[in-house]
Specification:
Layout: H1 2-21, H2 29-34, E1 40-43, E2 51-57, E3 73-74, E4 77-80, E5 86-94, E6 99-110, E7 116-120, E8 124-126
Length: 144
């Protein structure tokens, strides 16, 4: 249900921006958004990966149990965020049986417009899923 994911991301993004700006005078939405990336991004080897399951636990865990791989995928990457500090665990399972696990630490930091933000201590992760996890076994294949 991409609509629910987009609504959830929009709401979380708005809440995160409000927390970041903290009501600071002169903190325009555009200037704050330009300097914020609250997501930890997991880069897959291909956009058409045969991803069958995404499990997220910790403060990043979704509040609705109906989330599936398509609720997290954006092209060849997956992004997770947290509104509170803590360690999130991400587990990916592919149709071939290949699995990938990672922990992401989110920490509170000074915001660019005053206040504080919660962001990952490591922003980008390479999943390095093997070619067999890509549609047709081809890392260059595109989803369709």
């Amino acid at each position: 249900m991409p609509e629910r994911r987009n609504l959830r991301q929009a709401l979380l993004g708005s809440l995160g921006l409000a927390l970041l700006c903290g009501g600071a005078v002169g903190c325009g939405q555009q200037s704050c958004e330009a300097s914020i990336d609250p997501y930890a991004t997991f880069n897959l080897s291909c956009a058409s990966a045969n991803l069958t399951k995404v499990d997220v636990s910790g403060p990043c865990a979704p509040t609705d149990a109906g989330t599936g791989p398509n609720d997290y995928l954006s092209g060849a990457s997956i992004g997770i965020m947290s509104l509170v500090p803590g360690t999130c665990h991400l587990s990916l399972t592919f149709a071939t049986g290949f699995t990938y696990d990672a922990d992401v630490v989110f920490d509170r930091r000074p915001g660019p417009c005053g206040g504080t933000i919660v962001s990952p201590t490591q922003m980008s992760f390479n999943v390095d899923n093997p070619p067999s996890t890509c549609a047709g076994g081809d890392p260059g294949a595109s989803g369709g």
